[in-house]
Structures are given as C-alpha cells and as structure tokens.
Design a protein that fits this description.
globular, mainly alpha, single chain, 15 helices
C-alpha cells in the first residue's frame, strides 16, 4: 500500500502541471465537480499545502537564513520588486494595444505580489541549481508575505479595486505562516522517526491534489462568467501570464549576473523570481475580489498551471546546458 502511494506521489510530482491542466479542462465541462471548493474549504486546502512545505524545512534551512543574509536579501528584494512591477508595467503597457479587462490587471498584480512557489525548490534541484538557496528564498518570502503582499497589492491595484489589506494580512498569516511553522516544528521533533519520514515522502501527492482542487474550485466558481467572456478573454489572460512569468525568469537571472552569482545560484534566483505561489493568489482572489472583480481569479488559476509547466521546461533546459558543458 505504501509503495503504491509513494509511486503515485512521484508520478504526480513529475507531472503536476499536466494533471492540473487536465483538472481545469474537466472542470470547465463539468463545473459541479469542484463547486464545493470555496470559502473556508479552499483556505484549509491551501493551508494544508503550506503545511507540507513546512514539513520539508529543517534547522539547517533556518541557519541558512542567518549564514547567507546578503544572498537572501538580494533574492527577496528581486522577488518582491521585479514581479509586482513587471505585472503593473506589463498590464499598463498592453492596455494601450489590447482591450484588457480590469480583472486581468488585478489578477496579474496579485500573482506578482505573492511569495515564491513551493515547487520552485523542486525545479532548482532538477536543474542543478543551489537548492539550499532556493529553500532559503522560498522560506524568507513566505515569512514576509503576510506584510509585504497586502501592502504591494494596495499600492499597485488600489486604484483598480478596493483592497482589504488588513483582511489579506490576516488571511495570509493563517494560510501560510502558521501552517509552515507547524510543519517545521513537526519535522524538528519527529524528523528522525521512520513513520514520519514515510509520511513526508507521500506528501507531494496530497499537495498536487490540493492545488488541483483549488484550481478546479476557481474554474467552477467563475464558469458562467468565463463562458460569457469567450475565448479571446482567455487568450489575453494567457498572453499576459506568459509574458509576466517569462520576464520574471529573465530578469531574475539578470540580477544574479549583476551580483556575480555563480551559475547554480543564477539558475535558482531566476526560477525563484519567475515562479510565484499562484495557489495563494487564487485563494486571495476568490476571498477578497470575488464580489467586486470575480474574473480576477482566472489569471491566478492560469498562472497556477503555467508556472509549473514553464518551470519544468526551464529546469530541463538548464539541466541540458549542464550536460552539454560536461561533454
């Protein structure tokens, strides 16, 4: 039984993006399948995903935050400056040539203001990046998120729609910081227990399932509005998500080069900056903007899937470059 769960965990982890896209397509045609994923249920699912991240953190990871302050400062500044400003500038610029809905602007800004994605640590490992640095960046951006994310959203999207910064702070605190802390302390006290290690090994299965449920819940919630908007709305969303994500990778790598990081660290900061916790953005959009700007969740949901796909592609490209250099 355990081996089956472990194999399923590896299969889902390696094909997470395709699984999430499949769920999104199925939900589009059968919206009632995930209609139950909303409100507190959605929040609890994201909290569980963040708990699984906490289960991977060790005391050595925490020591890293103290041992490499300059590197983490550079990474955190890049994380919370580049992606929000790219989102704002990109939507402002494209609005002159494309009929971009306010919902797209709010959604992309929300994605840009969120911390790094959990799966970025896996991508850094696959591309032979600096995994310790990746874990450190993800951890510090998650710790800063309850304060930084609401303030950035208020600053950049406040003119587009009312932003409940205080409520957003409380929600991020509950669904990110607290679950991560619980996971870390569980790992600290039980990390050497064999049964606990088995639980850790199969957690990726439930993380991917949870993220798929969140995306499915979003599609179900805005299904009717999405049908009304039509195919062109989705195309506009994807164009902006693609540009936002790609520019994040490019500028993140550029920051590493400017500060003379080595190749492994350049790859890591590129992935960390470009890949956002779009699952958190999706939950926040569904909770705080569903009444005034319901379609803002669509860019967040599309980012959930696309960031996983693009991150995998970029990691494979970096790994190919390494193999080529070794020949």
């Amino acid at each position: 039984m355990y081996k089956s769960l472990l194999n399923a965990s590896r299969l889902l982890s390696n094909n997470a993006s395709y699984f999430i896209i499949g769920i999104a397509i199925i939900t589009y045609f059968i919206p009632d399948l995930f209609i139950w994923v909303k409100g507190n249920t959605q929040t609890c699912i994201l909290g569980f995903i963040m708990l699984t991240m906490g289960l991977t953190l060790t005391v050595n990871d925490m020591k890293l935050l103290v041992a490499r302050p300059f590197d983490l400062l550079i990474g955190s500044c890049a994380q919370f400056s580049l992606m929000p400003l790219i989102a704002y500038t990109l939507t402002a610029g494209l609005s002159y040539i494309l009929p971009i809905d306010k919902a797209i602007i709010v959604g992309i800004i929300l994605v840009g203001c969120c911390p790094g994605g959990v799966s970025s640590n896996i991508m850094s490992f696959l591309c032979k990046g600096d995994v310790a640095y990746s874990v450190g960046m993800t951890t510090i951006s998650t710790l800063l998120a309850p304060v930084v994310t609401p303030l950035l959203v208020l600053w950049l999207a406040g003119q587009q729609v009312d932003v409940d910064a205080w409520g957003m702070f409380q929600n991020i605190l509950i669904v990110t910081l607290i679950p991560v802390a619980i996971g870390f302390f569980c790992n600290y006290f039980y990390g050497k227990n064999d049964n606990f290690k088995k639980i850790q090994a199969i957690m990726p299965t439930f993380s991917v399932l949870g993220l798929a449920c969140i995306v499915g819940g979003v599609i179900a919630a805005v299904h009717d509005q999405l049908l009304q908007e039509g195919v062109m709305f989705f195309i506009y969303v994807f164009i902006i998500v693609f540009c936002h994500n790609s520019l994040g990778y490019l500028l993140g790598y550029t920051v590493g080069r400017l500060f003379h990081f080595n190749t492994a660290k350049n790859r890591t900061i590129s992935i960390e900056v470009g890949m956002q916790n779009a699952g958190l953005a999706t939950v926040l959009a569904g909770k705080f903007f569903i009444a005034t700007c319901p379609l803002a969740v669509i860019p967040c949901a599309v980012s959930c899937a696309w960031h996983s796909i693009s991150g995998t592609i970029l990691a494979q490209y970096f790994a190919w470059r390494s193999r080529k250099a070794e020949i």
